[in-house]
Design goal:
about 150 residues, alpha+beta, Alpha-D-Glucose-1,6-Bisphosphate, Chain A, domain 4, 4 helices, globular
């Protein structure tokens, strides 16, 4: 098993229509406004940005996210990552109950040297750190959607 390889899946039920949720998720540069663990997003061009994230554990990850697919009709936003993590992430936004289900899938390899050295003993903490980040993101987005 490669201890530096991660697969994540989060499904966020949200209290707004997909037509409201998708444009918010599309504006990555606004993520720090509603997602506390997304510390900064710097646009590099029309399809890429430099992102720094930090959750509960005392380390930050910085990576470039480059758009691979943007398909509003299918509700898909897909990006490739390079930097402290390498891989991809994809949002899929669909109708769900009275609102929206935002499905977040991520497959990455950790490249940051310290986290690679701590891969085996730190793995449970890294996964818990990610869960906390995703929980805060869902809560932040749900609150933000009330103002949109």
């Amino acid at each position: 098993m490669d201890w530096t390889h991660y697969r994540f899946l989060s499904v966020w039920p949200l209290p707004a229509a997909p037509a409201t949720v998708y444009p918010v998720l599309e504006r990555v540069e606004d993520y720090p406004r509603w997602w506390p663990q997304v510390r900064s997003v710097t646009r590099l061009d029309d399809t890429a940005g430099l992102i720094t994230i930090r959750s509960l554990l005392p380390y930050a990850l910085t990576f470039t996210a480059r758009e691979v697919r943007r398909d509003p009709e299918a509700g898909v936003l897909h990006s490739a990552f390079t930097g402290d993590v390498e891989g991809w992430a994809r949002w899929t936004v669909t109708a769900g109950g009275p609102g929206t289900l935002a499905r977040y899938e991520q497959v990455v390899d950790v490249c940051k040297p310290l986290l690679r050295r701590l891969a085996l003993p730190g793995r449970p903490l890294f996964r818990a750190n990610h869960r906390l980040m995703m929980r805060a993101g869902r809560h932040g987005l749900a609150t933000y959607l009330e103002t949109v």
